[in-house]
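Supplementary Text 2. Reproducibility record for the structural model of the 489-residue chain.

All settings were left at their defaults, and a single model was retained for analysis rather than an ensemble. We include the record here because the model underlies the residue-level annotations in Supplementary Table 4.
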Amino acid sequence: MIKPQFNVTSYTKLLKKLVSQSQVATRLSQSEGVSEILSVSPQISLSSAEVSSGRVNYGGKLIFTILYCDEEGKLCRMQKGVEFTHYCDDDELAPAQTAVCALDCQRVSTRRDGSAIVLTAVVSANITIFAPAERTSVTSCEGAYLKSCVRQYVSFSTFSGECEVEDDFEADGVDDILVPYAGVLVTSASVSAGEVEVSGEIALSLLAMRGAFPAGLERIIPFRCVIPCENAATGALPEVCAELRDMTVNATVEEDRGKCRVEFSCTLAARGYVATVSEETVACDAFSTTHNLLLTKSSESVSFPYERKVFSERTQSVATSKAKLDFSCRLIAVTRPEAEYEYVPSSGSVEGGICAVLLYEQGGDIKSTEITLPFAVRVGSGEGITASAGVCSIVVKQPSEGVLEGEALIKVAAVYPKVCSGECLVAVEEEGEKQDKNCAIRIIIPSAGDGLYEAAKALNFPPEEVASANPGLKYPLSGDEKILIYKHN
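Retained model, structure tokens:
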């Protein structure tokens, strides 16, 4: 009689990854005094992400900072915030699950609708779903012999938290700050003593006024955020997304010194997950000398972050522009730099474009155009590599008429995954008795690498009898041996 015994272990698995897009729009009901919109800078943050039956609901806040010229040609700024909610459907979603959501704002557009101005942005959500699960394995089996193996298994822990980031610095000849824009790049993350430590840089881009004309200011602000994560194992590499909330930039002019003190503060929110890898001894095969067995096995293959590398590269090339520029255009400032990119496995590079808004003067009027500077940063080849990028120190010039050249510093944080695969025995059932062939001697020539278990299974004899009958064998076998067993009636 075959009687297996089982062990059941609870863990958290990565169920799936979802991508959702939606449009977020808001209306400036009164557009009087707005002659031309020069740029719109969006700042997006997540407020909630909850899983229900068949659906994940997420919401956030999007703040538009609009730079425009009034009817007298003066540069002005206004802000408009909008809260939004959206959802993503999937049949496997259930209330007991957890969602980690990262939002990204893409393709901001403006249009006039009568006396109003409509601002529209495409919001992309990358959602990772985690679910509680159980892992069953056979621990022993009466009437059968088990083969034990050491396997690696993965369980995930999620985390989220906030920290305050502050900085202040001086700027020469600045009268006021028009438009603040900031991007976040996580450069390192680690786990120790039940907490996740996240470090990185905030690339702050400011459009300021110096006299009658705008000027661009840039500042790199380092940050460090410590977030509790009780179940994470020390030494694991977290997957992290970070964003800014409640960003404030104040400027105080000290006229006697000709200086402007800029004070920056924000709430930085970070969230993500950590994979904990454990080694377990499990049964991976079984045989019986008296019965044929039906074996059921379960296999897992899980990918998780294993290594993070940061690449810094200065790129310089011809920049494309949506407007036709010539020497009648005086370049003034570059604002709202950001990177649009993707990892290309065939080249092993993160490739894309550095996008920004170029302000210039033509015929006494201040105008703007979107420019793009291509870049490629090699990070290495491999399956499942993900990357994030940040931009700073962007400069644009017109060396010859109608030709723009751009230079910028691009930083890329690449995350390299590791795959853990495991298989274990989850059920053992009888499939009838074996027919005894009444052989007096049984002989096998094993394969190289076989152990005692494989030899015993091939001979259909208990492992201890095979070992005692062939005391001179050394395991694992070389494949040159000949093993024989005398059957005793």
